[in-house]
Specification:
Helices cover about 30% and strands about 20% of the residues. It is α+β, with helices and mostly antiparallel strands. The strands form eight sheets. Strands 12, 13, 14, 15, 17, 19, 20 and 23 form an eight-stranded mixed β-sheet that branches. Strands 4-5-3-9 form a four-stranded antiparallel β-sheet, sandwiched between helices. Strands 2-6-7 form a three-stranded antiparallel β-sheet.
Length: about 575
């Protein structure tokens, strides 16, 4: 991590060794949010909490080397193989889990990779085991509950812990879906780019924009699985059935779409059929996945809420599950802010590293507030990056736009520019990874830069979607966008590339996907967009902090406005090493 002030909390924790023999757990303690909130006192002792305990890797240097060698070896691991090579040994992991139970905590889930344990406990049990009270706080974001100090525990509990997610009052991750009020079409009017009204990018428009015809893939997504991580209520069979029927996609919803509920069946109150909430996000994610990979299987993992603790449980589920861990692409349209994520970074980065070692690539939306990743508003003058898109182990997906001139049809040569609100910034937390060395306008900033690549995100005209809460006629609507639209698009394209490379070369796995993105990007030359694997965006910019000036301009090659640009499926398949 780059900034020394982020180490301050750990140093304070080490300085607060307690006379009762408890040891502090690194990464926990009073967050900036708690410091600026009103403490309303302890919660009832029987209030229950679910949280994720991250465990220290046994051989982090060996893991780093393994991932670095993957482009040459092509090796991948199953979750239990990962545990054997890099995480706690089986006996150590079993003893730790047993100790948690002996302390009175309920173990909800373990992980095959030995990287996490999901736990449920009452406030009284948390106080007994970790020496803290759970308090109710109030700030300008509303009411939240958090531990009132550093978590401390006996040595046998503390020793293997790398962090705890879900007890420090983290703000919920925010959806990066934007809805632009669009004219309500007449019943039966089809949403598409060429429509006189109700414009939007239909599946055929998206496939034309990103080079599907030249790629000639007969059944895009066949044999592939896309995992979507979301929260709340998922789309209905009627939503997806209406969408695929409206655009004659060859998707069999009953056979190809599945929901996996994590943390029980309870969803956020009021979110189940709210088109402006989590439900609307889930519909968008699934429909964009099928728009560009209509033959793929989609596993939609839905956590009960969008708080980081439960999202972490969902991430661990995907990375460690025997079936879900085999998917080559995972897409997430939610994100938080680096400055509020110190407690969860170590835990999640270990999971993302595990995913890479297993040949699975995660895609995260880079955000819809340009360089203001922390959403500090118009008074903000500080450039901040969103998280987890800034993790060096995930693909950060930015957003593109047609600008002020919306075409009537799309082709692979249609000009795109950065969507002004698309997220892009250097990280405050992570040094520049090896794959970014020497590239782009931020070559010397010593920081992980985002985004890596982009796809269409401008809600004007937006993409075509349909949900039964908005349209009772089965009519698709335009005007939906955000990097929430772009991210599942990129995950879908990724699976089609994998499908094609596997068929052509007999390769079963992608390894070091990020490194390959940059290897291909460095080979982009010339100005003919139809022959560029990443169609370079060289005009336009994203906004500065608070939506004002001081953002990033597009440039030749890699930049913080659009990364390497947008994909050209045919060329990606052709040049994939």
């Amino acid at each position: 991590m780059r900034r020394s002030y982020w180490i301050f909390a750990a140093l304070v924790a080490l300085a607060t060794g307690c006379s009762d023999g408890r040891l502090p757990i690194e990464g926990t303690g009073t967050s900036e949010r708690i410091a600026n909130a009103v403490d309303e006192g302890p919660v009832p002792s029987d209030a229950e909490f679910q949280f994720v305990i991250g465990l220290t890797l046994r051989a982090p240097e060996a893991l780093h080397k393994y991932i670095g060698d993957q482009p040459f070896t092509g090796d991948t691991l199953a979750p239990d193989d990962f545990a054997e090579k890099f995480a706690l040994a089986g006996g150590e992991y079993a003893r730790f889990v047993s100790e948690l139970r002996a302390q009175g905590l309920t173990v909800v889930a373990t992980s095959a990779g030995h990287t996490t344990v999901t736990v449920r406990a009452t406030a009284a049990q948390i106080q007994q085991v970790f020496g803290v009270e759970m308090h109710r706080y109030l700030d300008n974001q509303g009411v939240f509950v958090a531990a009132n100090g550093y978590l401390r525990a006996a040595m046998e509990v503390v020793t293997p812990i790398s962090g705890v997610v879900g007890l420090d009052g983290e703000q919920p991750w925010i959806s990066h879906r934007i809805v632009n009020p669009a004219p309500v079409p007449q019943a039966g009017t089809k949403c598409q780019l060429s429509a006189a009204s109700n414009k939007g990018l239909a599946p055929a428009d998206l496939q034309a924009l990103y080079g599907y015809a030249a790629a000639g893939v007969a059944q895009p997504g066949s044999g592939e699985t896309i995992v979507i991580l979301g929260a709340g209520g998922g789309p209905t069979a009627n939503d997806l059935g209406s969408y695929v029927n409206a655009y004659t996609l060859a998707t069999n919803v009953a056979n190809q779409y599945h929901q996996v509920l994590v943390d029980g069946p309870n969803r956020d109150p009021g979110q189940d059929m709210d088109p402006m909430g989590e439900y609307g996000e889930n519909v968008l994610d699934a429909e964009m996945a099928f728009a560009l990979a209509p033959y793929a299987t989609v596993q939609h993992v839905l956590t009960a809420t969008n708080y980081p603790g439960l999202f972490t449980d969902g991430i661990s589920k995907i990375v460690n599950d025997a079936t879900l861990s085999k998917a080559k692409a995972v897409t997430v349209s939610y994100a938080g802010c680096e400055r509020g994520a110190q407690g969860e970074m170590t835990v999640l980065n270990a999971l993302f590293a595990q995913a890479q070692a297993q040949g699975q690539q995660w895609f995260f939306a880079s955000g819809d507030t340009a360089t203001d990743g922390c959403r500090n508003g118009t008074g903000n003058k500080i450039i901040t990056a969103s998280w987890p898109s800034s993790s060096p182990y995930v693909v950060a997906v930015g957003g593109s736009s047609f600008g002020t001139t919306v075409p009537t049809t799309a082709t692979v040569t249609t000009a795109e520019q950065p969507w002004t609100d698309a997220g892009g910034a250097p990280s405050e937390a992570f040094d520049k990874p090896a794959y970014q060395t020497g590239v782009g306008t931020g070559a010397n900033d010593n920081a992980r830069d985002i985004p890596d690549v982009s796809a269409f995100a401008d809600p004007n005209p937006g993409v075509c979607t349909i949900d039964s809460a908005t349209s009772t006629t089965g009519t698709t609507l335009g005007g939906t966008g955000g990097t929430s639209a772009a991210t599942p698009m990129m995950a879908a394209i990724w699976t089609v590339v994998h499908q094609s490379v596997h068929a052509a070369k007999g390769e079963t796995d992608f390894t070091q996907g990020l490194a390959t993105i940059y290897t291909i990007g460095k080979g982009v030359t010339g100005t003919n967009r139809s022959t560029q694997a990443w169609k370079d965006i060289t005009t336009g910019s994203i906004a500065g902090p608070g939506g004002g000036a001081g953002g990033y301009a597009a440039a030749t090659g890699f930049d913080n406005a659009s990364g390497w640009g947008t994909p050209n499926l045919a060329q990606l398949i052709s040049v994939w090493p």
